[in-house]
Amino acid sequence: MKKLRGLLGTCAWLWMAVASAQVKDMPGGPRVNQLNLHPGVTVISHDIMWLNWMIMIICTVIFIGVFGTMIYSIIMHRKSRGAVPSKFHEHTGIEITWTVIPFLIIIGMALPATKTVVAMKDTSSPDLTVKVTGYQWKWGYDYLDGPASGVHFLSNLKTPQAQIDGKAPKDNFYLLEVDKPLVVPVNKKVRIIVTADDVIHSWSVPDFGVKQDAIPGFLRDTWFRAQKTGTYRGQCSELCGKNHAFMPIVVKVVSDADYTKWATAQKQALLASAEDPNKKWSKEDLIAHGKQVFTTNCVACHQANGKGIPGTFPALDGDAKYVLAPMKGQILTVLNGHPGTAMPAWRSQLNDTQIAAVITYTRNAWGNAGKGKDPVVQPSDVKALR
Questions:
Q1: Which of 173, 260, 278, 355 counts the most CB atoms within 10 A of its CB?
Q2: Euclidean distance between CA atoms 130 and 11, whole angstroms
Q3: Separation of alpha carbons 299 and 51, rounded Å
Q4: Rounded Cα gap, residues 284 and 360, in angstroms
């Protein structure tokens, strides 16, 4: 039996070694067997790490001192050795000592901690300001000034659905990669204005020492100044619903020259992608475009087969109230959301063409094809009701 236990133990260690060897450190993200805080690339993150170690050391010294004294006293001053109760409890000097020492310890920890917190809240004189909006379940970025002023986009999870469903091997960036990262210049003070469109989210990047809650109806701000180029990763740190784990944050820090090139390219791309809401689309093109929009934004709740999740998210396959009814009701639902349900308003996230396309797709997908009225919805139809 002992040999069997020993063999099982050896196999377990070998399995753990093989498993850990297959997992690699993630650049800008968590590392294998990481136990400490991220070293970070900002002054604030360095200060947070230093505070963590300082407080841990102080607490360890106090722990050893207090419990060491207790254990020593229990052993060396026990009754069996003839020890008698001490009479020093009324000593004024001792009373003052164990009052002053804790006070000094608290002040020693509180002063540097307060200094760091005050610095974290100082968002004055930024070089760049970006508005960050949390959605279920993605992030929206709006550049408010600088070379990229006017640039805006949504940042969605890029992990393939096959990996999430366990049908494909998970890569090193599983659930931590996006289609469009936030891009900022190195050594510039970036002010982040955070809000949310639906529920409470939290924008958090450990390497920056940043974590700020995004609350609907409120604007809160934070800042960072990355001292090193690279890609840095975070996640929503506030439980926000079914796909809370599927809204990562990726920030790409680049040189000033590369940032200017990126900003110029983004503005050109926005102009090129601007779609005429009066353009007439073919049914086939709308369905193809709508499937992409549905996969990116709607599949988490309504599912790829249109069946939804019973009791939580309604099915679109055979939905006579919206999908098979005249298009006006469905357009208004997509634009304005559905009060009292998890259906959010999409008017600020999708343009007229995207909304028309995704509605056309749902009215012709699964078992809905040929059953309802208005199988084709044009962008002009959405524009008229926006």
A1: 355
A2: 51
A3: 43
A4: 9
**H or E element, residue 205:** strand 201-205
Q: Are 151 and 263 in contact (CB under 8 A)?
A: yes
In angstroms, rounded to a whole number, what is the distance separating the alpha carbons of residues 262 and 26?
24
CB-based contact 137:218 (threshold 8 Å): no
DSSP states along 207-256: GGTEEEEE-BT--EEEEE---S-EEEEEEE-S--STTGGG-EEEEEEE-H
Q: DSSP assignment, residue 25?
A: P
* DSSP string across 102-164: HHHHHHHHHHHHHHHHHHHT---S-SEEEEEEEETTEEEEEE-SSTTTT-EEEE-B-S-HHHH
Q: Give the integer Cα–Cα distance in Å for 296 and 286.
A: 15
Fold of 283-385: Cytochrome Bc1 Complex; Chain D, domain 2 (1.10.760)
Number of helical H runs and strand E runs in the chain? 10, 10
- Is the separation of the CB atoms in 352 and 360 below 8 Å? no
Assigned token pair, 56: 């841990």
**What is the fold of 128-273?**
Immunoglobulin-like (2.60.40)
For the chain of 386 residues, list the mean pLDDT of each consecutive stretch of 10: 50 47 61 77 92 91 92 87 72 81 88 91 93 92 91 90 85 88 96 93 94 93 95 92 91 95 88 73 86 84 84 81 82 85 83 88 84 83 84
Question: What angle, rounded to 10 degrees, do the helices at 352-364 and 283-297 form?
Answer: 100
* pLDDT, position 14: 47
Q: Given the structure tokens 């659905």, which residue do they identify?
A: 161
Task: Return d(Cα 380, Cα 273) in angstroms, integer.
Answer: 17
Q: How far, in Å, CA of 144 to CA of 123, rounded?
A: 15
Q: Quick check: 245 and 66 in contact, CB under 8 A?
A: no
**Every domain of the chain and the residues it spans:** 43-76+90-120, 128-273, 283-385
Q: How many CA atoms lie within 13 A of 345 on its CB side?
A: 10
